[in-house]
Batch of 2 targets.
Target 1
Amino acid sequence: MRLDRRTFMGSTAAAAATLNAPMVMGMAHGKPRVVVIGGGAGGATAARYIAKDSKGAIDVTLVEPTRKYYTCFFSNLYIGGFRDLASIGHTYGKLAAEYGINVVHDWAVGVDRDKKEVALAGGARLPYDRLVISPGIDFIDGSVPGWDVTSQNRMPHAYKAGSQTELLKAQIMAMPQGGTYAMVAPPNPYRCPPGPYERVSMVAHLLKQHNPTAKIIIADPKPKFSKMALFQEGWANHYDGMIEWIGPDFGGDKVEVRPDAMELVIDGEVTRVDVCNVIPAMKAGRIVELAGINDGNWAPVVPHTMASRVDENIHVLGDSSAQGDMPKSGFSANSQAKVCAMAVRAALTDSKLFPARFSNTCWSLLATDDGVKVGANYEATDEKIAKTDGFISKTGEDAALRKQTYEESVGWYAGIAADMFG
Amino acid sequence: MKVPVTAMLGLAFGALSGAGAALAAYVGDPERGAEIFRKCASCHAVGEGAKNKVGPHLNGVFGRRAGSIDGFRYSKALRRMGDDGLIWNGETLDAYIENPKALVSKTRMNFRGLKEHDDREDVLAYLRQFSDDPQNIPEAEPTAVHEVDLPPEVLALRGDPAYGEYLAGECVTCHQAGGSDEGIPSITGWPEEDFVIALHAYKRKLRPHPVMQMITSRLSDEEIAALAAYFNGLE
């Protein structure tokens, strides 16, 4: 275990901030302590906002196994050749140095909810007054017969970004001319609803340049998917004849894979493929189950604060939470994190609690300068986070608007990265 | 010469519903509009052989996408608004010449605006004569809110920057607090009034961007003022 900790009290700026810090609620042990598990769009944002807005009054520890975090959003653009991998990799130096967050690179392996402690793989135990859990997703064993995580080098999921994404791209580049890339798409609910289809667009873009006679097959258990009309129009415009989508009407829901033979079996029919991108069914990151705050595959939360419905001292953000209508996206997690940060500060210090507000927008790239988006506003009700109104790009939009939408997505990436990592 | 022609309009645009018809109580007088256009003519030419001057020529402006004349150097802001889908029609032109900044905050069009509704109608009636097919000029949705001028009490609201900082959490997912304008415009350090006018223009759907229309749809006057105060204070 390594602790990245700035000598926080030593700097004059920090000392001044501490003098002006909000009143701290009576804690037997001094400063209230917040532990955040997971350094992605939910966790990094929550840690940063709690540390920034409490001005040193709350002790924040962020637990994240990787030293360099690759965002899942925009990893498809790396596959398509629009970004290099370095541009979607981020480190935690600023969160430690500029916000005084204790960044611990280790795995959280357990939560003792009675003692209010997080156990780390390295053996350390981190006490907390409030715990924020934002671990993203894990895969459900057996959801695609023939596939388990030991197959991920033969048949990558590339649905957690980093080495898996690199592997998938390398496999696509190594396909023989006229070869076949297959995707097994996931059932609902899953991380980033348009993600598999943006990926297909990016794979097609890559193949069109390097391997124009190659084929793409998508086996999909869902009869319809996010931005379906926009993707289908884009595929017809840019990659005509290259992509075959096989929905449940044609056996897309009856799939088996054979990693050793590189075979995909759809409703009994065997196809030999060159790349098989298996995106299995998903559930909350494992720590949610270890903490015992799940109901089935996900962790139910109170919409107003993102607090677990099982344990009021734990908040769950992003993909792992069962909150209602918001899609599982980086934008959603970032939006939820700010509501959570405000609720945590209000619980631990005397800061104000404003009404929760949530929003989401997801951009997808179809081809060079052809971007589309979908988004909505949400409000907290007692029952769930409920959608109020939204919009989606239209089919047939002109090239100038699509280019603008793509450029906007690049701006959004820079914005959310700064909002997460400082 | 001013002609009150509510009845005539009702015939010409039978589809106009109550709100639209009420707003369209006056149809402009092109002759008077030609007089008023002299204020514009130092920068804009219109008519046969008109060329770009300081501003673009205005032949065929109705139905044209904002910022779309090849070879004219528009401001980045106007071009961006055009790419977002701003089309010049009766309503958007009316808003633009009432207060250019309501539609495009950083426009280069250095004009204070025509505050009188009838003056604007007259100028637009004049300009319409130089667009291709006056019969098929796109009209705004009849339900659209027409006025861009904000009531003085809305402009006078002093926002609470602390509340603005909380609300700004929703903005800085896309607009970088550091002020970068890569792909998405910078909103830091703006004069508060410009900021307030811009957000109300999205809220009233005069500006085309769907994300901004959505985000502003649930911001109250006080919340917009708070955001303006907060972003104004950022370096």
Target 2
Amino acid sequence: MFSTRRRFLQASAASTFASRLPWPLAAAAETTKEAAVLIVIELQGGNDGLNTLISTQDPEYRRLRPQLAIPADSTLTVNPECGLHPQLRGFAELLERGQLGIVTNVGYDQPNRSHFESMDIWHTCLRGDQRRGDGWLGRWLQESPTAPGSLAALHLGDQQLPLALRSHAHPVPSIRSQEQFRLQAPNAEKLQQELLSAAAPQPSSDDLLGFVRSSTSTALQTSQRIQEIGRRSTTGTSWPEGPLSLKLQTISGLIRAGLETSVYYVSLGGFDTHAQQPDAHARLLRQLGDGVAALMNDLQDAGQADRVLVMCFSEFGRRVAENASEGTDHGTAGPVFLIGNRVLPGLTGTLPDLQQLVDGDLQYNTDFREVYADLLQNWFRTDSDLILAGNWKPCGAIRS
Amino acid sequence: MTVINDQPPYAAEEAWLPYRPDVDGPWTTAEAAHLYRRAGFGAPLAVLREAAEKTPGQASQDLLTATEPESFRQLTAQLARAAVASGDPRSLAAWWMRRIISTPAQATERLVLFWHGHFATSAEKVTDVDLMLQQNELIRTHAMTEFEPFVQAMARDPAMLLWLDAATSRKAHPNENFARELMELFCLGEGRYTEADIREAARCFTGWEVRRRQFRFNRYQHDSDEKTVLGRTGLFDGQDIVRIVLEQSAAAEFLICKLVRYYFRDEIPDVAALCQPLIRQYRENSMRLQPVLQTMFSSRLFYSRWCQGFRVRSPVDLAVSLLRTFEGSANTVLLSQRTQEAGQGLFFPPGVQGWDEGRAWINTSTLLGRSNLISGLLTDSSTRFSGKAPAEYCREVLAEDPQQAIRELQTALFARSLPGATLESATQLLRQRSDQSLLEALQLLCSIPEFQLS
């Protein structure tokens, strides 16, 4: 432990940028520009997969959704059987360039239809009756060799840190935006110093106070680091409006600046479309597609696209039959989208079979842990058994 | 971040017995401060000293039964009408913030905030300010009384019906949202019902609509056939379902455990076993909360070291306790925006599950937000401490005898001991007596890890 720290201290002393930072961050500033990066986009509320990747042939889809079915001729063709929602033009563009992979009908056994419980299952790979200390990405962070104090993962958002990112060893910071992430005080530098010393770990403190102390240190140090990077230039990419796009823009800036972070996590809320679904869903998908397309363009221009993979998932899909409020209720399986230069373009898996419903819900084909196994083994090049608490076969959507 | 919690110092049978000053521990201004911080939103030292003269039972009873005088109510109603007239939910949030800061019925208001998180309804979706106000007043009316009438009223509350899309649930296509949250979030907790229960219960609520901004039962859209919910079969409607759900033994346990985590400690191992005596009392009182709260706030467990300092302050709590300690007032439009930035917007809970409380308040982003919330409050020109500008107040009241002042702040505001280095820095800053140094002292004190806990 001590020898590792010393090695990093010596390494960082050579870098002028690093020497302005407190030591744990300075240590982390030595980065590689080739390390694999994963950006997770969580679609909160249960994305309606059937109206995202749309069957153009199945009469059952149209029969069960008299109000909500998207006309086949308005979809953006993926293959002769299906197309994307007309507002997913960004995704269609990515598909044309061979950068979009869609794992169809992803779910898990005995699906839970509570938002929180199902989200927790996706985040931890554990059921409610099992002890959930950390998330699957948190466990990966623990397994992977990272410099002490480095920013291994970053959550952009004002909500609680996603369970997926929780880990014992690495406190993962949450930030809302670069600008808001700054201490405001008449004499911010002095306050920062006072707080850093007040937040220094003390052997006598109990677990809760220890947690607040270490969170305070991480907050102050990360803030300093991000402000530093924020002063650098931006690119000519035209970004769409909206909070998701803003977050992706921040992420792109951090990747281009060479931050060592390997996992970025953002979410887009509003997919719980129980009523008046069409407009709301269209707006969300447009934000998603355009935002991700802009991100990939921006990274491509900077020569960074090869090392970035984006995954979009939701806690469940929606009931096949629409409800009376021009909406849909909580369902089960749905598509997972993977974006990057190494994904297998087009579909992995088959479209859901609408003749084989269980209580009006889809039966999944691919377990979500097979998608995670693909990411861990073929993207992060890690063994996935421990992290996923079981032996899962990669779903085959990423070219190894 | 799994935590092995410290076991509570008392077994269930002893934990809820009345706290005996001197036998179980001290009863001083510091313990009174704990009571006011938890059951309310803090209080100035004079109030705490007065409370310490009473018995713990009397102090908690006085706090629980305090009411708003007629003049206060009239002014509050007048301000509410102005907020509604503005049509802006942020004005309503400012109105509520003002009430939280200034109401003498502190325990009620604290509970209203709890129920707002429990029956979380957001103005993000329910944009009708008047309906949001009506729900807020409905919560206040029922806050300490029996639970079933409360839930029955909530099930017909227009803001709630719009929020959970129940207002458009039809016989042919029942919308499951309200039925699900009724069981999962409001009354029983996840895993205490089946998916079939949800589907059947949703049928019972069909035809419950909102027309002209009021609840209306539309019998043409109501599914009046037989349903089976939670093992019972009959021609049930929504009212029957609320009753059946609350007859489940899980209901009292679910609520009392949540309340004990809210008022005592965020993380409690085997909380249900610890709470059994309270759960029993709650059931015996037809799920009326006030007697249970009285037991809670005068119990041995409440005044134990296991309880004090083991709750994470919410952003509203953080700002309001500072203001109330100094008999302060502030621009509540700005203040409610700032608490929202730090993670707690009144009338804007993050989703149907409300706020997660506990460690969820604390992350890298919110910690800076919390410090910035304090700095915003201290530097805003309309903030007053006992009628004075904060710097002026600090100079006149705190800087006279900095050591004494910080000791008093420790008692009124902090559940944890101030670290020596901070104490010294703050004393130095107060001694310098410049506007900037005085405010820096307060911002420092209110940004350290110890202040995040209550």
